[in-house]
Task: structure prediction
Amino acid sequence: MFAEIIINSNAKALNKTFDYIVPKNMENTIKVGARVFVPFGKSMKLEDGFVINIKNSSEFANKEIVKIEQEESLTEDNIILAKLMARKYFCNISDCIRLMLPPGTGGKELSTRIKEKTGNFAFLKRDIDEIELLIQEGKIKSEKHIKVLRFLEQNDGIYVPDLELLTETSNSIIKTLVKNGHVEIIEKQIERNPFVHKNIEKDLPKILNEEQRKCFESISFSIENNEYSKNLIYGITGSGKTEIYLQLIQKVLEKGKDSIVLVPEISLTPQMVDRFLARFGDNVAVLHSKLSIGERYDEWQKISKGDAKIVIGARSAIFAPVKKLGIIIIDEEHDISYKSDTTPRYNAKDLAKYIAEKNNCPLVLGSATPEIVTMYHAKKGDINLFTLTKRANNSNLPNVEIVDMRNELSIGNRSMISLKLREKIEENIKNKKQTILFLNRRGYSTFIMCRECGYVAKCKNCNISLTYHMVQNKLKCHYCGFECGIISECPECKSKKIKYFGTGTQKLEDEIQKLYSEASTIRMDIDTVTRKNSHEEILNKFKNENINILIGTQMIVKGHHFPNVTLVGVIAADSSLYIEDYRAVEKTFQTLVQVAGRSGREEKGDVIIQTYNPDHYAIIDSQKQDYNLFYSQEIELRKLLNYPPFCDIILIRFSGKNLNEIQDLSHLIFKRINKVKKDDIIIYKPVPSPIDKIKNKYRWRIVLKCKLTSKILDIINYGLEDEKIKKCKDTSIVVDINPNTMN
Ligand code: ADP
Ligand code: ZN
Ligand code: ZN
Result:
């Protein structure tokens, strides 16, 4: 007996199968999907891999499989899915397999991995400022040491094996850091149950209203009859979507089956999880990146063993090892986090459809502002559409006003806060009500320029302007993390007329504190959200300490329910309107509607949207909170421009340090595809990407517009198949279908 094996590696050259002999004693246990260890290459080093086929003869096999890791083996369905993904998303089969493995597997054997109840945790022993000083003075030189120390600043108290894995360092480096007095190791109990402190009151099902009941009954029918159906629940926030999910899951449980619920990473807050725990208790497992690897491993095992029958998680929870799938629910289905930005560049919504179909169970998408593409298919009848029009708890929709910022300039208000908004904030502070201010740019000033010669301060590694961060008094690159001191003199013309332009959240907070010295503020953006100071804690603090004003980026849009917030101000509604991305307008509309929904959940609330484009339909429609109107305008434009859903956008991105090679390869691929393409495929010539350098790597791209079909996959695969392309060392080539960003 012989087995075809895929080695667990992301090397392009290893994206093929190798034949191995199955020893007699394994013949009964081996199956497709088995995780095995095999001697590989000249060194005969043990590598892990997966059986993807079993056969009776082989011309090449001359080595035996050494071991099967039974507990961590995959199913045949997993392997089929991985193969399908590899073809569709242009990556290695093992890249896809890895998504389905227990967390922390890391190519190691099960018995060698840490499973104890106590473990070592790493803490910074010196203040980070002291460490930064030592780095500046050259007293800490090693790149690896610096990497670990900076990582620890963000993740103090991390489990040592996690630290090694996440910073790709060895234990000896950590030992050196301990010896030098920078880091200390403390042995602690390993927290393996993320809900151990919880004591949640049991919650009972609500009696559904008419609209909810219709939806519930229709989807229940699919559950009862074990049949696939694709459903969209379109209902404003608070209209009772989650209540329907909970009751559907109850139904699935009664049939002895499992449920997968996907939510955007950022809304995986304890509040959200609590609602599921309150209804289903221990039957719930949670998978997301904020858990330690140990916790994730345990949650994964709970699902795999059938101890938890409901999985809630972010994108990758679609691969949870459930046994008998009964429903897939995707909440906030419009969220871009369901599409992966790293290899494999899969879209969890597409995979969910495939998996639900294969398991004969319903797929449920829910949103207050469905993705345009989803709604298009719902209107066409490919997806069952259920509309919830009423807020289940009868709370009001806010009153939304638009402020034209061009008028502010003409009346001499140069501040980023309009007079109207200023007045409202003041009133709110007086009435002890809370305010949220939304600005999707972090830092202090976003643009630094010499007024004499036009020089712009840019990152030395990326073609991107630097952002001034006042807290550390530094200029930073938001793409690669490069930092440098502030400049007061132009490096080109020596002029002192350096001006800091643009507004980020730090400057906004600064200005608010100057305007309302009596008000308390709290800021939430990537700079304030660290492991120590989580998303969750900031929001809790805002709520529990009744802080007057929360200032934040995209992060504040989702999650909590703030009963005392009666005013939301959007500082610059246009900031995301004109980026080169087919979803830019849609995303702006969705964000504005969601932000507005934060105001007045329990009493009448106000929303003020500041903009330089008061006539843009995304702005006007978000004022009216009218999704249908927005949909009808946006879909016309998509048709006109031939954008999704009318066609797909395929981006082939090249990046690397060798510009000549990038140009050569991109033209080669362009020619190859052009040679075989049909008329219904539009292909644009290779050009530099909008951001043409990041982390010292040049970036080029080819864009194709066409309907994504099996034939197109073949054509692109043919385009990439040239020997020269396979051999190139310096250039990475990725294919991204309907990407989140065209950068
Ligand atoms: P959504 O998920 O659409 O935002 P939820 O399901 O969270 O809406 O419902 C909003 C609030 O209304 C929740 O507190 C929920 O418990 C309550 N609710 C939902 N459906 C009903 C119902 N049929 N009867 C009473 N309360 C309900
Ligand atoms: Zn200058
Ligand atoms: Zn940079």
Summary: The chain has a mean pLDDT of 89. The chain is about 30% helix and 25% strand. The pocket of zinc ion (ligand 3) is lined by residues 459, 461-462, 464, 477, 479-480, 482 (CB under 6 Å).
